[in-house]
Write a structure and sequence with these properties.
Layout lengths: L21 H52 L1 H5 L5 H6 L4 E9 L2 E9 L10 E7 L16
Length: 147
């Protein structure tokens, strides 16, 4: 039976290997750089998407709050329509506008919110609200009366 010699005993050159060669280090470093080069752009894009979704969530909350104010306040709320402090702080260049048009359900008010973001000026975020006409002026039919 042959005994294995330890690396401390004198041996011919190259018979005992300690550590890594330069070529192995170069290959490992190349693989690491390749992996980082492919994941860093994904990480940057992910951070941009998170920031964009946060801004869109703030914009939707702003539109919903403005819609509640309009329904509760009516015409007076439309005259005082302006973005809140939170929207102005979190949405750069925010602009709040509205359009009014008659509909069968009452007057339709479409709120539009834009801010400085790629494509957002051309495609504003919109939310529609219907202001009911004064129901006291309209006679009720017998079918609508309930005991």
């Amino acid at each position: 039976m042959r005994r294995l010699q330890s690396c401390t005993a004198p041996m011919p050159a190259g018979a005992c290997r300690r550590g890594m060669s330069s070529f192995e280090l170069l290959v490992a470093f190349s693989l690491l750089v390749g992996a980082m080069a492919s994941t860093v752009p994904l990480y940057v894009r992910h951070q941009r998407l998170l920031a964009e979704s946060r801004r869109e969530r703030v914009a939707m909350e702003e539109l919903a709050n403005q819609a509640e104010r309009i329904v509760a306040g009516g015409e007076a709320a439309l005259d005082r329509l302006e973005p809140s402090e939170t929207a102005m702080r979190r949405l750069p260049g925010v602009v709040l506008a509205y359009e009014r048009e008659p509909s069968l359900l009452g007057e339709r008010v479409v709120l539009m919110l834009t801010w400085d973001d790629v494509g957002r000026r051309e495609h504003p975020l919109k939310l529609a609200v219907w202001l009911a006409e004064d129901m006291a002026d309209q006679p009720t039919s017998p079918e609508e009366v309930r005991p």
